[in-house]
Each structure stands twice: as C-alpha cells, then as structure tokens.
What we know:
Number of helices: 10
Order of helices and strands: HHHHHHHHEEHHEE
Shape: globular
Strand order of the largest sheet: 1-2-3-4
CATH architecture of one domain: Orthogonal Bundle
Number of strands: 4
Radius of gyration: 16 Å
CATH superfamily of one domain: Hypothetical protein af1432
Structural class: alpha+beta
Largest sheet: 4 strands, mixed
Strand content: 5-15%
Amino acid sequence: MNEPDARAEMLAFMREKEARPAHVQQVARLALQLFDQLAVLHGLGGRERLLLEAAAHLHDIGHRTSPPGSGHHHEAARMIREHPWKHFSGPEVEVIAQVARYHRKAMPEMSHEEFKKLNDWDRRVVLRLAAMLRLADAFDRSHAQHIERVMVELPVNRIVLRLESPGPVLREVLAAHLKGDLARLVFQRDLAFMFGDEEMKPSQ
Length: 204
C-alpha cells in the first residue's frame, strides 16, 4: 500500500460522498490523537493508523442513502466495500468497512457474520480501531468541533482523557461515557474524562 496515494484516494471518496466534512475531519483528527497516545495498549502500527484515518473520514457517508431503518453505519460499510479502490487491498477495505460500521450501536460480536469471517489479527484490529473511533465520534457529538485536543494519561487500570476546549464539553462527555463501552472492554481499563481539573461523570 502506497500511503500517500491511499490517503488521497480515501479523501477524494470522502469529499464526493460526505455532506458534513468538518465533522468527519474532526473525528479523524481526534481518533489519530487517541491512536498515537494509546500505542502502548493497542500495539498497532502505521498501516492500522491509516485504516483508522480512513474509517474516521468515511464513517458517516451512509447518511444520504441509508434505507429507512437500516442505519447509516451499515450503509457506510456497504459503500466502502463497493467502492472501486485502487490503493487499498481487499482485506484492508474490509477492516475500514467494519470499523466504520461499528462506530455506533452494537459492538463487534462473533455472531455478526462479517466480523466472524475476519482472521484473528484483523478481528483484533477492528476491535481496537472501532474502540477509538467510537470515542472520537463522541468527542464531536455536537458537530461543533469544540474539543481541540485530547491528552491521554495511563495510570494503573485507567485511561484518563483530558479534553482541551474553549467551551463546554458536557454533551461530548456524556456521549463518550456511553460510546466508551468498547474501549473499556478492549483495553480492560476504566475511562475517566477530565476537563480542566474536574473529572466529569454521567451524573453531571
């Protein structure tokens, strides 16, 4: 995979299909911040980083065409699979599609036929990338790009996520408490969300 060509191809597809590019660009930026700072936990490399970047940019492309009741996450996965990619391999496209599919709603399970068909390594990759994408998407829940940066700290048995923002982040934190389900499962750690010196909890 030639990374510059693959990225250019992915971004061109996003610009063609995405109605709200500012949101997905923000999600991609935050997802990569999480990827880089959680490297000691996920153990993935540059190939997987690009697959996360692609899934983040493409996770919402199904909004325009998703049939009633199907969910845009399923439609995004279908569109990713059916696109005539030149610079991503078939297995890479399948990982991108599944990470995008799992950015919301159900977590990956062996009862899901497409997830079950993956080899062991790609299932591991999908779990870890989807965990980060779910958090990054929650961090732009308002679609207003409030959060400028996420700083990660890794005390024992916890992942502390410090949110840097000039404005309120309560809506994003509430979403992240819910969509942090997969990260808690995959990394076997509790999540804590900090804004300034205050830990923000669901009851707030």
